[in-house]
Fold this sequence. Notes:
Structural class: alpha+beta
Strand order of the largest sheet: 8-7-9-10-11
Number of helices: 4
Strand content: 25-35%
Helix content: 25-40%
Bound molecules: zinc ion
Oligomer: single chain
Number of domains: 3
Radius of gyration: 28 Å
Order of helices and strands: EEEHEHEEHEEHEEE
Amino acid sequence: MYYVSVQTYWHDPEGRRCVELARSEPSPGMLANYNEHYVETPHYWIAARAAVASSEALGFPITLANSMVYGDPDDPADPSELLREAQLAEDLAPKCEYCGTADDVETWTWYDGPYPDDEVVACSENHAELAMERRYPYVGLSGMPGYMPNQVYRFCDWSEARRWAVDEARRWQDQDLDEEQDWSVSYSNDAEYFTYEQGYETIDAYKA
Ligand SMILES: [Zn+2]
């Protein structure tokens, strides 16, 4: 964990106020009347940026501390260096596959995809699902005899999904089904969406 707090240090005879950026734990001299500047986060980039923002707002220098070392007001950190490090840490951190944030991501497992126990790094269960849906194009079948209503199949790639959908549409077209039988095959990924109704391609809804 990283902690940002406003501190004075017992070893500083002048009692200067500092914005402390601490790893592991904050130093013991935290000033309660600056509580709104207190930050606790597992992410270095969030803590470093918060420390720089508080330092600018309050006009106090930034001190660095960890469980072994108290902050030293005579050796303040360079804010621009901290911001550079923050950017680097954020760039290297794992990102949500759907929205790209590096904050609070975790690994989710998806059981309904073309691969068993597929994993995705995402910021929430919702984004994990959306990322997986974006990864794999699907073919939807509706009103097809012998299938569940509105059944969805997922494929590893776009061409495989398309081929399967076209084959399936042709197969049903050739069956000369009752005119009343209302069936369709649709397939989709982020870039394209097609529907075959009664074997005819009817929609080219969007292309990126
Ligand atoms: Zn996300």
